[in-house]
Amino acid sequence: MDSDVLQTEERRAPRAAVSAPAPSSDDPQWWRSAVIYQVYVRSFADGNGDGTGDLAGVRAHLGYLKDLGVDALWFNPWYPSPLADGGYDVEDYRGIHPQFGTLAEAEALIQEALTLGIRTIIDVVPNHISDQHPWFQAALAAGPGSPERERFWFHPGKGDNGDEMPTRWVSNFQGDTWTRTTNPDGTPGEWYLHLFTPEQPDLNWNHPDVRREHEDILRFWFDRGVAGVRIDSAALLIKDPDLPEVGQKQGPGTHPTEDRDELHDVYRSWRAVADSYPGTRVLVGEVWVPDIVRFTNYLRPDEMHTAFNFDFLARPWGAASFRQSITATLDAHAPVGAPSTWVLSNHDVTRPVTRYGREDTAFAFLKKRFGVPTDPQLGLHRARAAALLVAALPGSLYIYQGDELGLPEVEDLPIDLLQDPMHYRSGGIDPGRDGCRVPLPWSGDRAPFGFSPDGVEPWLPQPEAWRDLTVEAQQADPASTMNLYRDALRLRRQVPADAPLEWWDDAVAVGTPGADEVLAFRRGDLACVVNTGESPVPLPDGAEVVLVSSPLESGRLAGNSAAWLRVWAEAAATGTT
């Protein structure tokens, strides 16, 4: 057996020598109200001075994350990868990308974070793997009809010579979803399916090898103390083997590549693996399903624990829009007993400071274009208010790295430095997602702002204006966005996790100018009032203001701002204090 195979087999085996402590045995319900911080390793902190973030950088800043007040870290893929899609093209699930560190460093990070009371959630990408993965390379070498190809979606083309793609399905990154192979003799071969880029061939989840392998991957990381997994593109795994065109079959669950009913068997088996470990090991789904009932089907007690709520993230700024989303989300989760999740952005989405400063404040991937104007000050005010809004809601809260610093989207990156395939597959129309992935500013008054040692250029350039947004600069300013987040997360812990949300419709008296732009609710003795309009509005008489996103104006809540108040239950019921 060659050394590479031996190394893989050794890493496959359960760990006997090191006994990782159960990360959640002390609180089996931790995930229901956790604050989870998303770490995009490549852009968090550079520990070895090569311009790329790494695990050493994360370990060096665990104290910062503890002080911020987070309960868990979610890591974007940290595995070996050609990085054709920012690491979502995985080459080896049992290793760490050499730019980021080693498996031993990952194990140390998991335990060091746990010592600080911070759990670890990792990303898995079950829909596809890298075209450099040994499975796919073996499939290409084995040829048509081989067992190796049955793990993927290889298929002959249509037409007399097989020159036409098997289907006209459209990629999630725009463009085609099939790429043709070349036979050893140089002739055109079969086509293979990729819902994303050609470097990300889709796996065939009807094959037992695929299911068995991913269950083993879960065990590999649970054995090392990981508290949960975030499941990328969780609704896309199963395909219709008949390969119909979209719309050819009608009815719920009949889309050829999305939200098929067979998916639930996969996640029931994953839940059984997770439940076999001590403590609570959670499954968190990235589920883009517009039908609320079908969305919550993934959250039944024997499937996922939680799933991302993208509806709120995509909503335009406004009290009515926010309330509609909050109500629909809470109502949908109640029948299955699952907590809601709240998130303002992530590594794929335009940052809130930029998004909320635009005329159109909603988010949709297909609308992203270069040169869309934004008002950064307006966007910052709204982003700070939105941070208080989501932090006050019941359920778990996700924070994307840098949002706690009020970082804007970087929209003037040089074109030749852009790496995101969404940009290139759009024909250069879509600016892509690199602008929300620029390395964090930690200290100093010039780039690289402590991300890397002075004189080292980060993998993406940072704006000079970020000198005022570094962690170091914001620590000294009590009114900074970072300190707003710290205060909010500290106060959030004082609210019972099971405290229900009660709308406070007369927090601002009906008929008061601007009252229809106000969103207010109470949980326990904490109330949140959000003014999404432009003009100040009065706060309830005698209310104790404990936190505001913007300074009050003569005792009134400024436009595009939020306040947390202490109120008596009786007062909230009557609209007075």
Q: What does this molecule look like?
A:
- The protein has an 8-stranded parallel sheet with strand order 9-8-7-3-2-1-11-10.
- β8 (282-285), α8 (292-297) and β9 form a beta-alpha-beta unit.
- With 577 residues, the protein is an alpha/beta fold.
- It is built from 16 helices and 18 strands.
- The chain is globular.
- It has helices at residues 3-12, 55-60, 62-68, 103-115, 134-142, 208-222, 263-275, 292-297, 310-314, 319-333, 352-355, 376-392, 421-425, 471-475, 481-492, 569-574; strands at residues 35-39, 72-75, 119-124, 154-155, 178-182, 188-193, 228-231, 282-285, 306-307, 341-343, 396-400, 502-503, 518-523, 526-531, 537-538, 544-548, 556-557, 561-566.
- 26% of the residues lie in helices and 13% in strands.
- Mean pLDDT is 92; it is low at 1-25.
- 48% of the residues are buried.
Total E-strand runs: 18
Distance between the termini: 75 Å
Task: Specify the helix fraction band.
Answer: 25-40%
Strand order of the largest sheet: 9-8-7-3-2-1-11-10
State the major sheet.
Answer: 8 strands, parallel
Strand-pairing-aware structural class: alpha/beta
User: Which runs of at least 5 residues are low in confidence (pLDDT < 50)?
Assistant: 1-25
**Mean pLDDT across residues:** 92
